[in-house]
User: Fold Bifunctional protein PutA from Methylobacterium jeotgali.
Amino acid sequence: DSARLAELMREAAAAAGPGLAAPVIDGTERGGATRPVPSAIDGTAIGQVLEADEAAADAAMEAAARAFPAWDATPAEDRAACLERAAGGFEAHRGRLLHLLQAEAGKTLDDALSEWREAIDFLRYDAAQGRSLFRRPAALPGPAGESNALWLRGRGVIAAISPWNFPLAIFIGQVAAALMAGNTVVAKPAPQTPLIAAEAVRLLHAAGVPGGALALLPGGPEAGACLLGHPALAGVVFTGSTGTAKAIQRALAAREGAILPLIAETGGINAMIVDATALPEQVADDAVTSAFRSAGQRCSALRLLVVQEEVADRMIAAVAGAARELRIGDPRALSTDIGPVIDAAAKERLLAAIARGRQAARVHLAGEAPAGLYVAPHIFEIARVEDLTDEVFGPVLHVLRYPADGLDAVLASLKAGGYGLTLGVQSRIEATVARVRAALPHGNVYVNRSMIGAVVGTQPFGGSGLSGTGPKAGGPHYLPRLAIEQTATVNLAAAGGSVGLVTLE
Ligand code: UN1
Assistant:
């Protein structure tokens, strides 16, 4: 309720104050010349960042490599306890984290709050799952006279490369899982959001994660490239653009030595299919939330609303009408629905996409935004799925009509597009829902509801094809992917029976 939100807003405001993000290596913060970090809200400096150079990147990798054997040998119970203590720390420092999510990333209070919760959910989920997965090896059926078990152990040094749009939740989702699996981690946050990452790393260290086990490396693509080239690297976890994921794959393939794993969660051209039986109010609510909440800066966001011809005028008018009511502005105002986009480059890209949309198609919604990094919601109509080739990462929705007998063609086009992240279906016909779901390989399918805000452990998040490698974050297969699997099979009759239960530590 609004009294509680106002109270949280005061809590966040009370926790304002300059932030600092510098490389943290072996638990020690580096010094050097910093640059100011601008707020996405108004460009004012909200802290300072010292970006890592190549020497810092090398030092971070080497420190993490030295720390790996001891952290990997730390009982899973103790690693889990660190993550749980960190979850408590995140709760205790709610005001500071909410402040940074608002000031640095321009989030509304609603968005900041759900992101703060999601980060805590990741810490607790990974701790709970890791405690049982890594406590002891799993017994496997073995031939008679032999013991047989499957061990999971850390891989080594994992580079965690995270985006600005969920600078806390995705940062923690990567780092907590990699640590829980016994790896040491060098975390490179997005250059737009180093302060919140630095705060998260402080809280993890304060919770008992050893300095050597987790390094912070603020910086841009150059810092990332140093990590990818370092001989100690054992794997990469990445969330960001499809193009960057491919560049990472190429860099990993070009290395000497081991073949390294990559977990990548990337973009999507996410569609919502609306048939003639769908409820207009439901569609309007869910489409507006999915397309425009967080200023459309989610990889899960709705990009293409695909509506059956017979109801298209009515549905599109309902969506545009609802979107027209959204309030754009300072995200610290409780009445704001849409805050700023992340930076001037993002705004420029979006204005270019809007200019293209205005020329090429019918315009259902356009508007002016306040001065600053604000972009008004827009809705453009296209004629074919193929007309939308790029993910437009902001409050820009495209709509498309399909004839009643044209659904299969639309589904085939969506499949051919190659993305496979989120998919919405709005229909009261069970067979249609089943048909749409079965036709597409998308990772997260949402029926008669919004398509954003996947909950850890409930809707594990991530896709396939151009949208990423899997496994899904916040799901049961993520932690094992960060580990090495080792079976040990022992002939119990040999060695005079003296070598037996390799399942015991
Ligand atoms: C992203 O936007 O990079 O379901 C992924 C959601 C979020 C999306 C995170 N988990 O909206």
User: Anything to note?
Assistant: Residues 155 and 483 are 5 Å apart (CA to CA). Residues 109-135 form the longest helix (27 residues). Residues 163, 165-166, 170, 239, 298-300, 452-454, 461 surround 2-aminohexanedioic acid (CB under 6 Å).
